[in-house]
Amino acid sequence: MILLAGCNAHQSTLAPFGEEARSTYWLTVTLGIGALLIAVLVGTLAWRAAHSPGNALDHRQGMRLILWLGAVFPTVVLTALLLFALPEMRPLPSQPGDLTIRVDGEQFWWRVQYESGRGEPLIGANEVRIPVGRPVVFQLAAKDVIHSFWIPGLAGKMDMIPGRTNRLIVKAEKTGRFRGVCAEFCGLSHALMAFDVVAMEPSAFDAWLVAARTPAAVARGRTRGAALFADYGCNACHAVRGTEHDARIGPDLSRYGARTSLGAGTLPPTTGNTATFIRDADAVKPGARMPSYPMMPEDEAHAIAAWLKELK
Amino acid sequence: MSDPERSEQHRKWHQQLRITLWTLIIPPTAWAAHFLFSYLWAAISCAKTGRFATFPVLFVGGTVMALLVILFSGWLAWHKERTPGDPPPHEDSTEVDRLRFLGKATLLLAGLSFVGVVFTALPVIFIGDCQ
Ligand SMILES: [Cu+2]
């Protein structure tokens, strides 16, 4: 039962949706079956050895058995596996024009920047969207400590190291919503540092990339939530496209309403949860780098949350 | 000795080579040196050219050299190991047992080291990436 609890289709190396994860999956299956066969072989040999009369094998035959089954056979099998696995470990091919997504790991969330061609990159957070069938180059770095970027269904993990940019090239093969996680212990809320991955049809992705740059209409609106957001100084850390708020310390909230999670994969982004998070982020995510607002009345938190939910 | 009637001069050149504890460690030493060489070569050539060499001539040359050293010491050990004598274990304090023991041990080490060098070289060549 405990093992079954790990089964799911959106965050699993056993449910691959990308090229690299798929070949890793088949390698795992091959290794599993091979290990089973070898275990059966060893078991049979041991059983026969224990049940055959003494001296059934002379010294020469025994030595030959050790040479072939104990040395030559494993060497050949390991060489074959190595020759199969090594080419898979090469980075996927990519061209200079390919979509580049820069992701920075920060305690305990993800800064995401889509860089395509000229112009300002599109900034987002805690969600990564990729087109299916095209290579995507991830440039991975970190602000504070070492994190690790891992989308189990897509590709292997890649460390995010402060002061260094690592490249990970991926290619999604199936559309859908998936999940990625931080795979390197990075502090109190390491386990609450995940993100959503959306693999889209290329045309839908291109359309999204354009649409995402246009500010949400309500951003400029003179709602109570928008006013409170500024009054409480949230704009010291958060940016909202289409307003004068452009701080880059915390996650960009321009399209918060379109997110499928709150606090980097921690909670469903309902208005209620968002309000709770705004008043006491530390209670939801211990060690989160966002101040708590214990004096904020609940209805004000709700007003801000409601406004943020409309930013799509 | 194995063939006391033959004088020193009539022996083939390789029969004059002695095998000792020192020659026993030649194969693993070649393996270790090749291992270090692989890292150094990759680091230096990547740092100098910025990308993985298309034809890693120096690396292949070094690998072939390590393999030749190992093959040679294995071949020598194989000859010594065939000195006539009792079947194993070679545990008597006689010259023949000493030779046969060292020969067999060196031969096995040479086999292991050969595979070790190949398994070190394959990733370097196949991954072919500087990151
Ligand atoms: Cu982390």
Automatic annotation (TrEMBL), chain B:
> What is this protein called in UniProt?
Membrane protein
Alphabetized, the UniProt keywords read: Membrane, Transmembrane, Transmembrane helix
Q: Which organism is it from?
A: Novosphingobium malaysiense
Q: Which residues cross the membrane?
A: 21-44, 56-78, 107-128
